[in-house]
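Query form — protein VOC family protein

QUESTION: What is the three-dimensional structure of this chain?
INPUT:
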Amino acid sequence: MTSRFAQWTIDVLDSRKMAAFWSQALGYEIEHDGSSPHLWPPSDAPSGSLTVWLQETGEPKNGKNRNHPDLHVPDGQVDEEVERLIGLGARRVDVGQRGDEGFVVLADPEGNEFCLLYRRHPQGA
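ANSWER: The structure tokens for VOC family protein are given below.
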């Protein structure tokens, strides 16, 4: 038996603002179960899709994330998705890219980096 990824947990200052951003970015449903929102994949998401838990913290993000999610765009329209996410409050960030990578680096409204991949691994879910 081996472990599998189940959830992405992110520390946030403003859980409601971040729930609104990530639910719109991912098409997830928001469940407010007390102090911190939980985001659930839509019913048509692939089996095993990660949930997202937004854990409130009193400390702002400091420095580059040591890990981050890599997202793909099912219809392949990465440039359009970048613009949509920027419209939701994301911004482009430079973490040392050379310019020929197969991804675009963005940050959510609180500065947490994530990438949009131009292509997925063939076995990716």
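ADDITIONAL NOTE: The CA atoms of residues 72 and 117 lie 5 Å apart.
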